[in-house]
Amino acid sequence: MMYALVLRGRIKKWGVILSVYFCCFTFQAQEKKVDDGDTNKEIVKSFYDFIESEDKGLLDSLLLHIRRNELKFEEDTINSKILYLKAVNNLYLLRYDDAENFYTKSFELAEKTNDNLLMGLVYNDRGVIASKSKRNYLKAEEHYNQAIEYFKRGGLLVSELGTYYNLTIVGKKQGDCEKSLKYARSCLALIEKIPNSRDLLKLLYIIKADCNIKLGNYQEAQKDFILADSVISEDDPQRSLFYLKYAKYHELRNDYSEANELYKNVIALRNKEKRETEISLKEAFERELGLENKLKSDKELVIKSQRRVLYLGALIIILLLISLILVYFLAKKNKERSKEIFKLNTNLKDLVFDLKEKNIALEDTKDEIEHLLNLNEQTLFSRMLKISAFKDSIEKLNEEVDCYIESNEDVPIYLMSLRNKLEALVTEEELWEDFKVQFEKIRPNFFNKLKKVAPSLSVNDLKHCTYIVSNLKSKEVAQLINVSPRSVETTRYRIKKKIGLEKDDSLFELLNEL
Fold first, then answer.
1. Nearest in space to 202 (alpha carbons), one of 252, 162, 244, 238
2. What local confidence, expressed as pLDDT, does residue 426 receive?
3. How would residue 117 be classed by pLDDT, with cut points 50, 70 and 90?
4. Helix, strand, or coil here: 357?
5. Residue 120 in contact with residue 147, Cβ under 8 Å?
6. More confident residue, 265 or 404
7. CB neighbours (10 Å) of residue 449?
8. How far apart are CA 241 and CA 45, in angstroms?
9. Nearest CA to 102 among 86, 118, 78?
């Protein structure tokens, strides 16, 4: 990356942590309830927070939030930043090819939006890949210079400084001290313009001193060492490197006593670092010991769990054996093939084969039953059609008698009695109750189950549900009950709304499951 941790050594640790937690909690609290504008602002803010701190925890939280909530964005400015963050994540994971792919896509979108910062960051990171993974320092230098061009266009001095520092390191790795010194001088010029960037001075002075030693510029090297000594504190980790390079300088100048003192300082600092490392290792060992104890307890829990699984497995095996014995006697009773059953009981392969045959027979029986049910349904609706026709005939006779009564004053009492008998002969309630009884012979408890699903259905709705579950088309129902097909469709739509189904849901499938 851009060695931003070096550039921003004064950034407080808790500030970064609070930033990460703020981002996480903000995302969790808002989730999908925020509007697009708020989400975009949070993404952009988190992007710049990461560029500022290069905190991997913040990067992981942001990418996890995007992936978990399946966030999609239309703006190229947002997508270019997300692609860049994915590229950086792959760079951390050393997946350089994947990182290059994401950097390329990010750059294409950044170029559309004229985002100089993002284009510069892409080229800077590609320089890191060329330098670290491929050791192609010339290509890395080319990428870094291209990044500087974009940073200059945007007036991004901090980013430009970081890239010049990368170029200083690349020049040193190439063995070209003149080039390294040139880039180091560019860094120093920028540091004068950027507040809070002087922490980089200590490394630059050490690098300059080392390059001047290799070029034989001992006076310049001495000046650099003096400047480095003035900016490096006694407890700074870079103090050890400073003493080592300074000792080599004195050794080359044949000042062995001074070199010896500096080497002693290096050894003392290294010993201090070693002790701190040992303490750290001891703490790590204690943590590891605690983890081992926890692992041991977890292992015991796993063993107990495995035992429960074994007991459960034994119970399942016993149940399976009982099932096999029942199947054995059923097969013996139904097919009278005692010899074959005895072989099936001693040979699992033959038993499986026989079970397959039995399943086929059951499927045939099921098809036959379904066929009979369909016939019964057809018979039921045919009977209903006849009764409906009979009822219509009676109603027409009643209408004729009513017309006769209205047109004649002297109406025989017998004719009035006959009309009342015809009217009472077939009622809607009787027809419905008779139909329910006959229908539930085919589909037991259908109406009770349907009432639980939708208590508000009327008698007419229940009738239409029987037509639907019997797979009658709208035209067939219209012909059956003497209404228009459109009226049937309207009734079906009203039933779906009462049940709570969406427009695309299948009413037939729901009713068929009852």
1. 238
2. 56
3. very high
4. helix
5. yes
6. 265
7. 13
8. 37
9. 86
- Token pair for 87: 């590229």
Contact 102, 118 (CB under 8 A): no
Element spanning 116, H or E = helix 116-132
* Reported confidence tier of residue 36, pLDDT bands at 50, 70, 90: low
From residue 468, give the alpha-carbon distance in Å to each of 24, 70, 367, 441, 506.
52, 40, 20, 17, 11
Sign of CA dihedral 33, 38, 39, 42: negative
Q: Which of 225, 219, 222 is nearest to 204 (CA)?
A: 225
Of 185, 224, 221, 176, which Cα lies nearest the Cα of 202? 224
Question: What are the tokens at 250?
Answer: 């004195």
The CA distances from residue 148 to 123, 152, 157, 323, 512, in Å, are 9, 6, 9, 78, 70
Number of Cβ within 10 Å of residue 410's Cβ equals 4
Total residue count of the chain as it appears in this document: 514
> What is the rounded distance in angstroms from the CA atom of residue 426 to the CA atom of residue 429?
9
Residue 231: how many CB atoms within 10 A of its CB?
Answer: 17
410: left (phi over 0), alpha (psi -120 to 50) or beta: beta
52's tokens:
């500022």
Helices (H), ranges, 408-506: 413-425, 428-442, 446-453, 459-469, 474-481, 485-499
Burial 96-132 (b: 16+ CB within 10 A, else e): beebbebbebbbebbeebebbbbbbbbbbbbbbbbbe
142-144-147 Cα angle (round to 5): 110
d(CA 206, CA 241): 8
CA 39 remoteness from chain centre: 18
Spatial distance between the Cα atoms of 114 and 118, rounded to a whole number of angstroms: 9
Q: Kindly state the average pLDDT of the residues 271-276.
A: 84
What does the pLDDT read at residue 146?
92
Q: Which residues contact 363 (CB under 8 A, 6 or more apart)?
A: none
Cα-based angle 251, 257, 260 (whole degrees, multiple of 5): 70
The answer to whether 155 and 1 are in contact (CB under 8 A) is: no
HSE-CB at 63 with a 13 A cutoff on CA atoms is 17
Distance of CA 65 to the CA centre of its chain: 9
Report the SS3 class of residue 318: helix
Structure tokens at 1: 């990356």
Tokens, residue 159: 């980013």
Write down the mean pLDDT value for the chain. 79
- Rounded to two decimals, the pTM is 0.48
Q: Rounded to whole angstroms, how far apart are CA atoms 479 and 469?
A: 17
Q: Scanning the structure block, which residue is given the tokens 């208590």?
A: 455
**At 150, which helix (H) or strand (E)?**
helix 137-154
